[in-house]
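User: Hello, can you help with two protein structures?

Assistant: Certainly.
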Amino acid sequence: MTAMFGRLGWAVADTWTITRRDLTHWVNQPAQIVIGLLFPVMIVLMFGYLFGGAVALPGGGDYREFLMPGMFAMTMLFGIETTFAAVAGDAAKGVTDRFRSMPMSGSAVVAGRSVADLLNSVLGLAVMVICGLAVGWRFHEGAGRALAAFGLLLLLRLAMLWVGIWLGLVVGRPEMLTAMQILVWPLAFVSNTFVPPETMPAWLAAVAEWNPLSATVAAVRDLFGNPGPAAASFAAEHAIALALAWPLVLIAVFAPLATRRYRDLNR
């Protein structure tokens, strides 16, 4: 028992060391953080003010209140690119190999990256909330339901970062980020983020409704009390359950894959 707690304490200490290393890297390169925070703000301004007037919500309501929950979730999704670039960059520079040569817990590197990226995502979400409040977004269902919505958003980010860690370790080449973006952007746009699925062709609407991103967006709209499409399908009616299930499934699959991939590098 003592040995088990000793190994656990060792793993936690190593994880925190890697977390601090990753956070220090961001502090030393603030421009990267600022650009990452400003990009979703630009998307909000573009869609909220340039295109929003052309979008009529089937049930009525303010488009920017409809948009902001989608933008919160999309920001969590796009964090996968940051995770992928950082992990692949460390692998390409040999940093990952140096970590593996040290007497440290085998899961600490990937766990430390996940903690650091999740903390960064909290900052990104806070910036988006401030942006939303500035453009007129509000939550209407009380602080408890709002906190539950933010919890679902961070759960989605946790799932996406494990996918990003695994892909970064598998690919190991930061120049493949463009290919990652080609995969991520359709996931963001074929969803209920910007328009209700019922405005799409039937086959595309079905794809959009079962998109994991759509589940989180629909769930947080409901929890915030923001306007959204009427629940006319199983996915829409059970959005909160799916917003929990999709990320948990992704974590259950990709967290072990990422840890195993790290341990098996160069074998």
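That covers the first. Now for the second protein you mentioned:
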Amino acid sequence: MFRYTYYHVLYVGLINIMMFVPSILIRERFTGAILGMLIAIVIGSVMALSMMVCFEHFPGLGLPEICDLYLPKWLTTFNCLLASIFIWLPAGVIVVYSYSETIRMFFYPDMNPYMNLLLMAGAAAWASSRSTRTVQFINEITTIVSSPVIFIILMKAIFGPNLNWDAIRYVSGYIKEPPSFLTVASATFLFSGYMSLTIFNRLHTEGFKFRFRWLVPLFGTLFLSVTFFVPIGFHGTVGVEKFVYLWSMTADSMVLEYGFINRVLYVFLLIFTGLSLLFVMNTWHISILLIRYALNRSVTVEEVPVPQINIWLALAAGVISFAYMFAINMERNEIVSTVWLVARFFMEIVFLTLMLYFAWRRKKEKACV
């Protein structure tokens, strides 16, 4: 069962382009992005591995149930609502808006943007309202189907003739520049897949252990390096800053010579449609279950039929997406994403601190038995 956690690490690392992480790093490529990424790799890896070790002490329990063991109920309720409303729900809203606009601009710019959002938000809302075990199975299927194509595209980009390694080496020379806090905070997002354990740890049985933990820093480091350096290699040290849809234009700079497939852009957007919906499904599902736990503390991993409250909360998330599109544009969306990345970083530190305390209490309890 531990393999499911690595699926979350994988798709979160890939979806960082929709949270504008590469754009933030590119803006600071001469002013500390390199050192900031190195610091983020260390911080992100330590936080991810520490959280995974802590959750091993509580098989079958999500973070809300663990909080109930050691904290007052009002504080558990506050934590659940805070994380749901300000972290998990906005993450899905930002990504579904960002990707619906991206795919509309490249595929059918004359289409009504609300119609495109309806298709994506509707699919994500329906999927997020399913049971936790069903959502986990969807994660596995989508990740296994998408990953090989993504790695082919990445290998094509890295080893293709159009990548200018001199531009990459030039930017790498700014390693001594001190990074900003925003650089470090945003770069750690690529390691944040472990936060899915907040809910999905309920699926782990007694005695489970995470094996191959080295995959977490490996995935994070790989995706962070690729999403930052590849656009620089394709567009140059100066030209890379001029693109709004950075990675979409980077994909459009590549060509696949495999049968009827020529432009990488179409394959890229198709694959990331699935990954974006996967991310939104998971963030809204976690948000729904956190709200439900705060309301009545009665949540199980298998629920047949699906409770009506799941459907209503999922529909509410979809409606919020429409309100967000009405009030925002791509420039403001990038600002909101930046604020969310910083807020997420602080929230992860708080939750890690809580989990370290809970794990210490659990070990102390076992020692006294």
